[in-house]
Design brief:
The complex is a heterodimer of chains A (143) and B (151).
Chain A: E1 17-23, H1 27-37, H2 47-53, H3 63-78, E2 82-90, E3 101-111, E4 116-124, E5 130-140
Antiparallel strand pairs in A: 1-3, 2-5, 3-4, 4-5
Chain B: H1 7-10, E1 20-23, H2 26-35, H3 41-44, H4 54-58, E2 86-95, E3 104-119, E4 122-135, E5 140-150
Classes of the chains: A alpha+beta (143), B alpha+beta (151).
């Protein structure tokens, strides 16, 4: 082992798990996130509207915030050894403020020569349902 | 021939928005990193933009009287569809170059496809919008494809 970062991809194996992380978004985080986007959709901050008009059980967590957490899951695992080259994900099940969510992932393909690794990533809710599934391609830096 | 999609609607495929040029600032990166509970110092300090920073950078800054009663802005790129209830959609994002404070980026959105499928409980309309983000040298920095489903 030379100790360079370039060797890291050789240590990656299909089935490797990414570290999981718990998220418990509250009203303050949701407000700040939607303000940063300039997203005025009432379902994210007007609880009577979300419940009574749209019929949601609570304030809806914005879909792209869940997408961001997939990226963070990948980047915290990669560190400075590589970068995300592409990701595909969808918001399948809604989630609400007050829920505890969990991100994670599994390596599904590893091309050591190209330094390219495919990872299945997810955000799950407390019931264990995958609410935001995704597939990412990451590339480890060459030596 | 499709039941819901007429020629007029399909003729909107290929149309693009006006290019939208924005400056990446350290302060905006920091706000985004904090709001997403990012834990990496380079993003919290605004030294580099995290992936998905193009989402807040190019979200339309519309005026209050342009928002509908539920607080949503109307996407002028889209035609009026015969189905309006939005279901879960998907995103595909390619990252070609990193983004730093001081970068000027230009986004162009194109309506690339509209098609119909039969769902379990009736017809569904799918549409795709591709947003290309380029730097001032014209190099592709990010390409994002959004697919949305209407029922």
């Amino acid at each position: 082992m030379s100790g360079t970062q370039a060797t890291r991809v050789t240590q990656i194996q299909v089935g490797d798990k990414l570290p999981e992380r718990e998220f418990k978004p509250d009203n303050v985080q949701s407000m700040l996130y939607n303000a940063v986007l300039w997203n005025g959709h009432r379902i994210h901050f007007d609880e009577p509207y979300a419940r009574d008009v749209e019929g949601y059980p609570g304030l809806v967590i914005a879909g792209p915030l869940l997408g961001d957490w997939l990226h963070q899951c990948l980047e915290e695992w990669l560190g400075d050894d590589g970068r995300i080259t592409s990701i595909e994900y969808s918001n399948r099940i809604a989630s609400y403020i007050g829920e505890t969510l969990r991100s994670g992932g599994t390596v599904t393909r590893c091309d050591t020569n190209k330094g390219e690794v495919e990872v299945d990533v997810f955000v799950r809710n407390e019931a264990g349902e995958v609410i935001t599934p995704g597939v990412a391609i990451v590339k480890f830096h060459p030596g | 021939m499709s039941a819901l999609l007429n020629e007029e609607l399909l003729s909107t495929i290929g149309r693009s928005s006006e290019p939208h040029r924005e400056l990446v600032t350290r302060r905006d990166i920091r706000k985004y990193a904090v709001a997403t509970s990012n834990r990496q110092r380079k993003y919290l300090d605004g030294d580099e933009a995290p992936p998905m920073f193009h989402v807040p950078l190019f979200w339309d800054v519309v005026e209050l009287d342009q928002l509908s009663a539920d607080g949503v802005s109307i996407d002028s790129l889209l035609p009026k569809f015969p189905l309006e209830k939005a279901m879960a959609g998907g995103l595909k994002i390619e990252y070609h170059k990193p983004v730093y404070p001081g970068d000027w980026l230009t986004a162009t959105r194109t309506l690339t496809d509209i098609y119909e499928k039969q769902g379990r409980s009736g017809a569904l309309i799918f549409y795709e919008v591709v947003m290309d983000v380029r730097n001032d040298d014209g190099e592709l920095v990010i390409r994002e494809k959004t697919t949305r489903i209407l029922r």
